[in-house]
């Protein structure tokens, strides 16, 4: 289990990925009298409440539909709300980008999470005070910078190589070079030397796709066969050029072969055919997918919150109750819900599901441990007042640029509204049984698993004020759930002794069912909310969500489900002339 201090420290952990952002605009306002606007885009990122310029694009002359060549690179953290703002200005030559209202062509705010979840985001541009910038839109396309998308196993042999030795046969070895964009060559792999053999079979070897071809199948590769010399003066036998795309024809029963050519012999010898043949006997691709591979392939993170309505929380009408609704200060349930939900809402295109347990509910006021807090047994997703779009509020602050505030989206807002409206209608009771809710979400996750696609992963956030009563059933339910596409986050609210809850968090050991069966994956994260009372509002989310990307990859890797193939983006055709 992590502490608040460890939650704060998550920001300093290794970046999950880097993301490239490409920007284009359409129908920009024309600010120039004689020519069209000369647009430039500024990228700003929020840090400790302040907007800081990260980078800016080139200026494209006289173009209202620019496609910028500049690629913005940002670090990506799943467990943070990373707020971005794109501001478009009309540039004035050597004067650069102005800070005047007349130069401002519009702005748009979003999060890194929204962009990677949708892969392509198009939004209207707004002037200050929430006014539309005409029909202007901005489109941001994201792409993960793939540091390692797996590795490939290759098996080569050669036939009838030229004999370079006088008293014995050649001692051949093979080198593979990647040809980079600047035409330089990078050695990828060198095989062992096979002594005294003109038809050698080299040992199979593995190389990463990043090393072999920079994860670009069409990148050219140069393969060279040498006759080994112990003094280092190896004799050149021949070479051939290929690509990883061509190599892949060797998968299965197929083989691919190339003529090993010596350019000098080709010029000098009239009947020269080759200096031997190199054969790719086998090729096996071992993909290693990242969290972003799944998200950008269309996998959604579906969020369900489960709220403890047992009597130990206290009467909601009493200000000492953990469920007391203070109009000026959200209670701990709401704080935890919003902190985690604000991250997840960027990855879930559906409304959030919200369940309650431990209360007597209408109409018969029988105790329920898995009721929908909107009281709709057929649909537990909560409706909320969506506040995106026109409600962006722009305001000019000190310094260049415009400032806007990010409202809460319909996903988390719907849960907040349902929670507040259900409190007067229920009777807090008990006991604290969470196994029914875990099993309920697990049934939905099991249906998803049967599709055999990486399309939905489920996060269950359980907010409770005490140690669970049905510990044996809960352990059994968690072990079953560890085989499904789901993770469980438990936040302890209030001042109860949560020592016994640590058993559910597998950080200190392997959680087992009452019968001794271990979990397949560690899917539970438990933290007491009180450890975050004095921490920043985002510390709780950083702490409890930091493990989720690893859990998602672990599950789909175990099931051998590759990311789904996203729909290809339609490129914009209006390229400008950057200056």
Describe this structure in words.
The chain is an alpha+beta fold. Helices cover 18% and strands 31% of the residues. The protein contains twelve helices and 27 strands. Strands 21-18-17-25-26-27 form a six-stranded mixed sheet, sandwiched between helices. A four-stranded antiparallel sheet has the order 4-1-8-7. Helix 7 packs across helix 11 and helix 9 runs parallel beside helix 10. 41% of the residues are buried.
Condensed summary:
This protein has 579 residues and is of the alpha+beta class. 18% of the residues lie in helices and 31% in strands. Strand 22 and strand 23 (403-405) form a beta hairpin.
Structural class determined from secondary elements: alpha+beta
Mean pLDDT level? 84
The main sheet orders its strands as 21-18-17-25-26-27
What's the architecture of the largest domain in CATH terms?
A: 3-Layer(aba) Sandwich
What is the CATH superfamily classification of the largest domain? von Willebrand factor, type A domain
Largest sheet: 6 strands, mixed
